[in-house]
Amino acid sequence: MSTFLPPNTIQRISREIMDLQKNKIDGIEILTYDPVRNVDLLSDLSEIYACIDGPQGTPFESGKFVVKLVLDQEFPTKPPKGYFVTKIFHPNVSPREGEICVNTLKRDWKSTLGFKHVLMVIRCLMIEPNPDSALNAEAGRLIQDNYEAYANKAKMFTDIYAKQQGLSSPSATESNNMDTQSLNKTSSFTPSTPSDDSDVKENLCNNNNTPQSLPVPKKPLLLKKPTSSTTSSTTSKPTSLKRL
């Protein structure tokens, strides 16, 4: 739904989009056009769409995940709301609406933060989930009690949903059918084991899921069961979505 934005807010959003066009972030791209619906995604600046590559060494690797930032008239005083348009199995993402739970979009929001920062934080959350603030109870439980089962189901969702074209998502009924049919067809997830992955993770996020920089990891990340101290926060063939 389109929201009226003040002229100064529109100017700020336009500047940020131009900056993201000039200074691209590895693994993150702003989307401008949806060929499935034949929609110009920049015709309504109250909804910003981006494509995030699934980080290496995670169950989301090789997936292309579309996210949406929804702004209202109080932006940037009030933070945008973040959603995964692409269905994902993740403790901090609502399984129904795709809403993202991360402190940057809540109590840690500052009006000086921009889309680049928000998108980098979301990608960090894909690397280091926070089961203590789970919106998906099943994913939050599995990631603590049976991490292998969590990783396998997250990979199954990636294989089913994160390799489709366009922004259209399957209906709830279609999703359930696809999940059931694919349970026995999806191979288990085995993370790559680098010699030392700590340097890569420290470059991506600090302990508050605040991005420092976002290079393409030179080595795959070793998946480890997150501890309670963790706080919230691909490369398949490209989709036909037009990007800046």
What report would you give on this structure?
Keywords: ATP-binding, Nucleotide-binding, Transferase, Ubl conjugation pathway. Belongs to the ubiquitin-conjugating enzyme family. There is one protein chain. The protein has 244 residues and is α+β, with helices and mostly antiparallel strands. It has a domain of 169 residues: Ubiquitin Conjugating Enzyme, CATH 3.10.110.10. The protein is 29% helix and 12% strand. The protein is built from six helices and six strands; from the N terminus they run αβββββαααααβ. Strands 1, 2, 3, 4, 5 and 6 form a six-stranded antiparallel sheet that branches. The chain is globular, with a radius of gyration of 17 Å. It starts with 6 loop residues before the first helix and ends with a strand. About 27% of the residues have low confidence.
Tally of DSSP helical segments:
6
* SSE ordering: HEEEEEHHHHHE
What is the total tally of β strands? 6
How would the global form be characterised? globular
Q: What is the CATH H-level superfamily of the domain at 1-169?
A: Ubiquitin Conjugating Enzyme
Per DSSP, what share of the residues sits in E-state strands of 2 or more residues?
A: 5-15%
CATH topology of the domain at 1-169: Ubiquitin Conjugating Enzyme
Low-confidence stretches: 169-187, 192-204, 206-210, 212-241
| Cα-atom radius of gyration | 17 Å
Alpha-beta content class: alpha+beta
Quote the average pLDDT: 77
Helix content: 25-40%
CATH architecture of the domain at 1-169: Roll
The end-to-end span amounts to 23 Å
Biggest sheet architecture: 6 strands, antiparallel
Instruction: Report the CATH C-level class of the domain at 1-169.
Output: Alpha Beta
